[in-house]
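We emphasize that the prediction below concerns an isolated chain of 590 residues; any contacts that depend on oligomerization or on bound cofactors are therefore not represented. The input was used exactly as deposited, without trimming of termini.
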Amino acid sequence: MAGLLVAETPDTLQAVTIVADKGVVVSRTDTVSINRFNTVSEALLRLPGLALSDYGGYSGLKGVSLRGLGTAHTAIYLDGVRVSNFQSGQNDLGMLPLETLGNAVADYAQNSLSFRTQRPVFGESPFAGRVGLQYGSFGTWMPSVRLDVKASERVAVSAHAAGLLSRGDFPYGTGSERREGNDIKQIRAGYDVFGTLDRGEWMLKSYINASDRGTPGSLSWPSADRQTDKNAVVQGTLRKAFSDRYTLNLSAKGGWDNIFYKSAWGDSNYDFTDLQFNSSHTFQLTDWWGLSLAADLERGLLKATDYAAARTAAVAALGSAFRFGRFKADLALEYDGTFDRGAAALHSLSPSADLRLTLFEGLDLVAFGRRAFRAPTFNELYYPGYGNPALKPEDAWLADVGLEGHAGFGEAWVLSGKADFFYNSLKDKIISAPSASDPYVWLPYNVGKVEAKGADLSAALRYEGKRLQSGLSARYAWQSALDKTPDSYTFGQQIPYVARHTVVLGADIAAAGWRFDALWNWRGGRADASGAMPDWNSLDLSLRKGFTLCGSSVLSFFVSVKDLLDCRYELVRDYPMPGRSVLGGFEFKF
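Result of the prediction step, given as a token string:
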């Protein structure tokens, strides 16, 4: 899958063009910086178009979905290579190598979230890196280390390791009770090798994750269950332009995931092996016409305590890009095939179009339309007593139209803004319902329908002076994601956990080695199958001071306060989030 062409920049509302995994150029994106946050989910809360599912605390499962389509329908990529989970369709963002990440790109046209590794930067020395330690509320420790080595003019190596230890016993409700069994011990480590070629680049990435954590269950059904998980990934990417007319992108991945649940209801083990090979070929036929061909092949094997499954997924795509003065059009046709062992194959065709018209310098009119399929997961198809092998893929149509603008004032001021209006329609949604033979046995069926429409409005003002840097941003999202399933008892209601209204306000200022950040997040109009959920808001503040030591070394001390106003809320019903918490520490960069 082709690598992302994204600069390492601060949070921005300007469009970022990327090359998607299928070789199709798209530009309906938002970018957020990751490298100054303690968790991936903290950074993603800056994007109102995302819906986060967080089961509370550092040990809780953290997933993400875009514009009401669900976590299983939202693809996750790391350096252009897909992070796959055929078993449940949910990727835990807490298992990503946070210490290496630079930014995340939410791509609304491709319905995906892509993470990019931060490349090392060297001064006069061929060595660079950082060592850090954080300590905070609920007995939380976060040590980390990264070492970068400039092996040659064309090759750099980066190694990293980090740990997370937390009791996780935060108060909830009125504060008289504490969340027990939410502890975690986690270690992450890996290395990256970056290389450049004549008219190209390559990257080799390897990382491991291992943790032992509590899974306390909901407040309604508390448990003493525990989970241990391990995963190991090796992946590589290559981009090479052989001429002005032809560029080759290749990537491959081998991954292994293990999750073991120790439960009073019986232990269970899941081993998932993932192999991928992906290629795309871009041909610049004329100055105004480009063509791309892509082919992806993925093999997934699951061995679980109660069942086993195997899947081969194949993707082929033909894309064409046109440039006529102020007008740009990217058109594509994608084939997806899913071939499970012992089951009938699933086939789908997805056309897409991404259009951009520059009305005048600094203001663009943009639009896209796309069909998207989501194959059922192994659990939905084969889980004993629950799976339904007759399930079809979920079928969605995505459409968007909007305006993007930016303008500079003087040498240091930049004003940018976006206004997006979207409509998503999802049919054959997989939902659980009572079976015809026994109303007490629930099975998954293709009977769900979702209609999602809304608007994303954003504005930002930045000042980048020599001695002072500062910024203000405001984002608002309105989403009406309604259940349109016939005869559903939630017909006409908001899809669970999708906020109808979201407001995100941010501010930062940096001068003389000091940096102050503030973020206010408010989400209202949420519901789940049990009814309406309370609105919530959170104010996060952080302060950092850096001291320049010998050479280019910098020693920084920082403190952050999450949920300053101590708003007690839940992203998932009966799974409380921590209230006010404080985290402080130091980081030494050399």
